[in-house]
Amino acid sequence: MKMKHLGATAALIIVATLAACGGKAMFAVSCTISGLNNPGLVLENGSDTLSVPAGATTFTMPRQIAYGESFDVEVLTQPAHMTCSPVFGNNDSAGHTTAINAEFTCAQNTYSLGGTINGLTGSGLVLINGSQSTPLTVLTGATSFQFAALVADGTPYGVTVFTQPTGQTCTVDKNATGIMGGSQVNNVVVDCVNNPT
Amino acid sequence: MKSLFVRSGLALLCTLVLASCGGSGGGSMLLSGTITGLTKTGLVLVNGSETDSPLPGDLSFQFPNLIAVNDNFDITIKQQPTGAVCTIANNVNTANIYTVQQTVVTCTTNTWTLGGVVNGLKSTGLLISNGSDVVSPTPSATTPGAQVLFRFPVKVADGAAFGVTILSQPLTGTCTISTANNVGTMPPSDALGLIVNCI
User: Is any Cβ of chain B less than 8 angstroms from the Cβ of A54?
Assistant: First the structure.
């Protein structure tokens, strides 16, 4: 009994001594980021926030965390015209790996391109946006169209008729060209008329 | 004894017949590989006397006959696609369960320059677009209004569609693109016949 008591006391002393040695190891919450071309990004780890400038490839959150403490680095505010998201390691606990290194990636926002079609009765109308997107075959009788490929914010576009429908001639009459803004474009107007017989 | 002799002979005969049937194709494994970037017709792969003709969009190929363990194979490109160039890797080896599926064929479609001329351009600001690809011709420095050439920075793949529009007018004057050839399919050569007229 006496012996057991002594053992427990010794254990207590060891624990107390270790704690006094400087407590737990501290970890920097460091991250890498790719594709950040625009300003405005703010990241958060709990209440700890950081603004990251355009062009940055690495950043470290201001507050260090202790061994065992969990972290969750998330996007608080997206940069202009872009969306950034975590790829790997943004949500873990300190000490799980020798160093914290979360990865983020950013990409320009993309929006759909399309519009209305008037008077299409023939079949085989094909619309294109330059050489970039897969040519879009429009169904007979369609009154609207939308390219499958999205267009990035700030990127030019130009819609033309690649193949005329049978018995008709279609022209892109309004808003054929432009530069993609911060929302989808659906104001391109294609008018089709019957060919003279 | 006689019966045994006959049986042995038959067995030997059977073995010989089977062996001659199979040859190098008498194995148990598919000789295959992966393909990337194939958009054109005409590619022919060959291994010995066997050929395979992958089609545009195919992501893999396989030869019709099976191959045996320890058979040697040597897959080569017998014919390139029209309008594209393919290369082949991991194509020579001794057959085993790993090597028979490690050949990689990588194809790149030929690309060509799209462009033309602008007549009557007297100021800057003209933007000509092929979808997201934009070129900004500048007027002749010595003779404003003289014909200038333009080329789109991004080449267009053989057989791909193009459609050229005026994205932005110059500071002075109005330009239109000739609709005779502003939309088309890229030929297997540079297409430099676009015409933009400014007034």
Answer: no
ipTM of the complex: 0.71
**pLDDT tens digits for range A45-92:** 999 999 999 999 999 999 999 999 999 999 999 999 999 999 999 999
Interface test with B, best of A160, A188, A190 (most B CBs within 10 A): A160
Contacts with B, A 90-129, CB within 8 Å: 128-129
How distant is the alpha carbon of residue A49 from its chain centre?
Answer: 19
> Position of tokens 């011709």?
B137
Give the CATH number of the domain where residue B123 resides: 2.60.40
Using a pLDDT cut of 90, give the percent of chain A over it: 82
Domains of chain A: 23-108 (2.60.40), 110-194 (2.60.40)
How far is Cα A45 from Cα A61, in angstroms, rounded to an integer?
8
**Partners of residue B131 in chain A, C-beta under 8 Å:** 128-133, 156-158
Same domain, B131 and B143: yes
Helix (H) or strand (E) holding B87: strand B84-89
Q: Are B164 and B177 in contact (CB under 8 A)?
A: yes
- Long-range contacts formed by B51-60: CB under 8 A, 24+ apart: B51/B78, B54/B105, B59/B34, B59/B35, B60/B32, B60/B33, B60/B34, B60/B35
Other C-beta atoms lying within 10 Å of the C-beta of residue A190: 24
Backbone angles phi, psi at B126, to 5 degrees: -70, 125
Contacts of A42 (CB under 8 A, 6+ apart): A49, A50, A51, A52, A75, A76, A77
Sign of CA dihedral B132, B41, B43, B31: positive
Answer yes or no: do B131 and A176 touch at CB < 8 A: no
Q: Are B87 and B136 in a shared domain?
A: no
Find the chain B residues whose C-beta atoms sit closer than 8 A to any C-beta of A: 114, 127, 129-134, 154, 156-157, 160-167, 182-183, 186
**Residue B86 in contact with residue B104, Cβ under 8 Å?**
no
Q: What are B115-160's pLDDT values in tens digits?
A: 999 999 999 999 999 999 999 999 999 998 999 999 999 999 999 9
Q: Can you tell me the distance from the alpha carbon of B30 to that of A159, in angstroms, rounded to the nearest whole number?
A: 46
